[in-house]
Amino acid sequence: MALLDRLRPQPAWKHADPAVRLASLDSLTESEVGVIATLARSDDSPRVRRAAIARLADADVLGTIARADVDTQVRADALARLLTLALDGTDLARAALAARSLREERALVQVARSAPAEDIALAALERLQEQRALGSVARHSSHDAVRARALDRVTDPAELEAIAATTEHNDTGVAAVDRLGDTPAVDAIAERAKNPVVARRARAFVRVREQRAADAKARTDAAARRRALLTEGVDALEHATDPARARAELTRLEGEFAALADATDEESRRFAERVAAQRTRLDAAEQAEAVAAAARTARDAGLAEREALIARAGEAAEDVTAHVAGLRAAWEALSPLAGGDDGNLARRFADALRQAEQQHEARARAAAVHEQLIALVEKGEALVAPEASLDESERAWPAVQAEWQAFTAPLAVDAGLAGRVAAVAEVFAGRRASRDAETARTREQRIEAWRELGTRAVTLAAAADAPIRDVDQTVRELKAVLEPQIGAGAGAAAAGAAGDPKAGMPEPLAVEMRAALAALSGKLRELRDAEDWRRWANAGIQEALVTQVEALKTSKDLPNVARQLRDLRRQWKAVSAGRDEHGALWQRFKSAADELQARCDEQARLVAAEQAVHVAARVALCESAEALAQSTDWVATAETLKQLQAQWAATGPAPRDQVAELARRFRTACDTFFTRRKADLTTLKQAWSENAAKKDALCAQAEALAASTDWQAALTGIKQLQADWKAVGPVRRNRAELLWKRFRAACDTFFERYGQRHQIAQQQRVEERAGVVTAIEAVAAEAAAGTVPEGIAATVQDLWTKWQNGAGLAGEELTALRARFDAALHAIVGAAPDAFNGSRFDVSAQVARRTALIEEVETAVAGPSKASEAGASPAATLAALLRESLAANTIGGRVNEDAKLRVVADKVRRAQQQWRDLGPAFGDAAAALEGRFHHAVRRFFDRHPELRTAPTAEGGRGPGGGPGGGGHGRPDRPRHDGPRGGGRGPGGPGGGRGPRPEGRRDREPRAVPS
């Protein structure tokens, strides 16, 4: 055998010379991948290994070499080859295998950045750990999902900053800036980011931070000012007279001070000291007030007892003498009044007892003259009866009225009689009022009819009872008209407003008015003298005013005291004579009034101090509102302003003019902010509306693409829509979620279908094949029923062609459908064989053609007989080989024999193709021929196994082993029905050249040679 081995020619790739092995690589075909892998793994020469690596496409082998080869350059070449295969977009399955075999970080980064398929890039990304590697992928990957996933895994802030500053992808850069948030890094990004969109996003963060800092400073300054005002407010409480109210205000100020954050230690200490001092003062004031209150309570009790006795004095009693004596005894038994009695109560008690006795006497006298009073009342009522004469009644009533007053002055008159008399008096008063009104109307009509001042002046001069006011007014008006230089007051003002009143005045009228002026001036002097005498008679009124003003000293209602004091002063001025003789009354009035005025002024000062605190609080609120008027932090500022408005409403009273001005100022600041916010909201609403329309259109496009089966175009479109969605601005919150859910649902629907695209395509292919099977089963059912449709041969041939050219399937589904199709086809041919004469399915013609092919294969397989096959000994076999070699005149004559065998192999393969083109075998005879043909083919390739993968004339590489040939020449690789079938070598029924407009058609079950 050693000699035979030496005589057998060795392949060049096993040659001892590395140069020969290197040259042999060029002659190795793709089918000899095992040889190439062997050279790449175990050849002694690094050059050969490197050259073999360049031809190798097996990812597992390349990965092993890249990790374990002893030569550095070989490992580098293997790694480079793996990387090339991983980045190759023509064969995604091979690219995925190559990517999985990579281990080096840099290579994985390149795959994650540049892999043709997203899933390959994602798989490579998941194996990366270094932050810099993840950052490189996030910056440069060509797939959106890969960039997003890489960015999610980056945790180093420095790497995030580098991504945001250098990436050219908007979505990645913006997401990195959002991850960094409001940090100092965004300042650098805003200055040096390459992507303008990223820079704008970073500048937005910077602007927001600056605005927030400005707002915080404004709030801090406002809080400091407010704390200072609160401290001043605590000091202002020193003048408060109401301890309870002052304590409540102090508590409110403490609470407001505590609510203001960031107070300095000095501010807190100063405020606490002022609060403690005020509390000490209030405690002392409350103790003093408690003592005074106890005294007041005791005095009030004594006053109440005395007031009760005074009230009882006015009660009616049958025995007035006993009643009065009992009240006097009770009065004398009372304990002394706290603070002393000023004599008013004792005088009032004495007056009440005296009045009770007088009323008792008056009632007694009234009972005596009761009948006379009734007659007098009836007389008065008769005067107002309808039949009474008006003139006589008017003349008689004063006498009746005078008589009634004379009778009743010292008496307690019955209320019923008094009411009747009052009703009669009211009737006469109404008559008198009507008469006086009529007189006034007549006088006005006379004045309006004359329309001349002279006529009115003459009338006043002639009237005996002209009022001094009218005379004085008329004199003033006459002087203003006739002598403007001596006019004064309202008359001068009226004359000046009317211009020169003498313009166009007739001289007779002027003479008449001068005469009237002279007459009225004398009359005015007389009336003034009479008025002076009348004023001398007002001393009693002044006494009453002094009593009233002195009585106000005991009142505690100081606002009411101030009002009454002003009224009493006006009354005093009206009745004051202005004479020295009445100076004592004036001194009493002035002393009491000044004392009351001092108390009122003190109260006003305290009120003013309290109002000053309120004014300061309102000023602070105005400053706070003005500081926020230009803010753009709409939500927070609006909430702050609402709180300021609530504080404004809770602030106490202040002077009306100051409150009005501060209210205008506060309202202006609030209106400025809310007007700006409204304008901004209007702009935002318009932008939201436009963005909503854009996103609605994107939703509609995404929904249209969600049902598409043009997967690559739809995938590109969906990704573009996602990018467009990110570029669209915000929309209103209540619509944003709905639009996003709609858009995401459409995208999810597409990607779910895209993930199942192979299953969907498979289902479509199944449905297509099932339709063909259903159609042929329908024809079979008709044939089984004895009805042979017209043109059945053409129909079956058409269905057969559709089946052969149908979409590729694999697995149990294809097996089940093929079984149903073959069963139906056999049933049809068996039911009506004559209908298929001359067609592909003619049974007798098939038998003849199959027999001819079998004989051709068996003849080719038999060939010339060899000694070894005749049972010759090894020595005889060797001698025969030597003879054959000598006959060829060279040991290389073996090559001619190999060429002959390849020609025979080609004949066998062509026979396999022709056999497959015959279609299915019908009947027992055809089935027997099927086994005979396959047996002959297997016998040939069993003898010559080296020819199983021989190249075909068409360039394809069938397995050469019988039926089931075709494909890529790799018997160990699983075959799939579908558009990714292999070559068309004539190596058997699998390598035929039938019509295949949609790619490789389905193969018959492969028969492996046994």
Describe this structure in words.
It is built from 40 helices and no strands. By secondary structure, the protein is mainly alpha-helical.
Question: Can you describe this structure in just a few lines?
Answer:
By secondary structure, the chain is mainly α. It has helices at 2-7, 18-24, 33-42, 46-55, 59-68, 72-86, 92-101, 105-114, 118-126, 131-140, 144-153, 157-166, 170-180, 185-192, 196-236, 243-259, 265-313, 320-332, 344-368, 370-383, 390-408, 415-450, 453-462, 468-482, 489-498, 507-536, 539-551, 558-575, 583-628, 634-650, 656-706, 711-727, 733-755, 757-784, 792-804, 812-831, 843-862, 874-887, 894-917, 923-943.
Q: What is the number of beta strands?
A: 0
- End-to-end gap: 27 Å
- Total of DSSP H or I helical runs spanning 4+ residues: 40
Low-confidence stretches: 446-451, 484-504, 577-582, 865-872, 888-895, 950-1010
Principal-axis shape:
elongated
Helical residues, percent: over 70%
Strand residue percentage? under 5%
- By helix and strand content, what is the structural category? mainly alpha
Please state the CA-atom Rg, rounded to the nearest Å.
64 Å
Give the averaged pLDDT, no decimals: 76
Largest sheet: none
